[in-house]
Amino acid sequence: MDELLAKFLPRFASLARERVQRATECVSSRKHEAAAEIAHDMHSLAGEAGLLGLEGVTTTARCAEEAARRFGDTREEDDANGLGECLEKLERALADAMADRP
In a 3-state reduction of DSSP, which class is residue 45? Predict the structure, then answer.
């Protein structure tokens, strides 16, 4: 597992940060039409994190996926704010996961 992490973790971290940044920009601009893409990205991120054993990232990405779906469905300000909060938590979870790795 250590070899797997050493090989794939840097690429995962880079791609995850890109996805979170893109999602944050969309929600900040209230681009409801991007909600399905955000949900898809968060779903992919959760799966990839799960393969790498990053449980905290997996759980938080799933929360963001659900929040993105709500954001797209309701177009409510509270749901946009909720997605923004999930994305902030996801950024912290990613930072924590990377800090725990040698």
Answer: helix
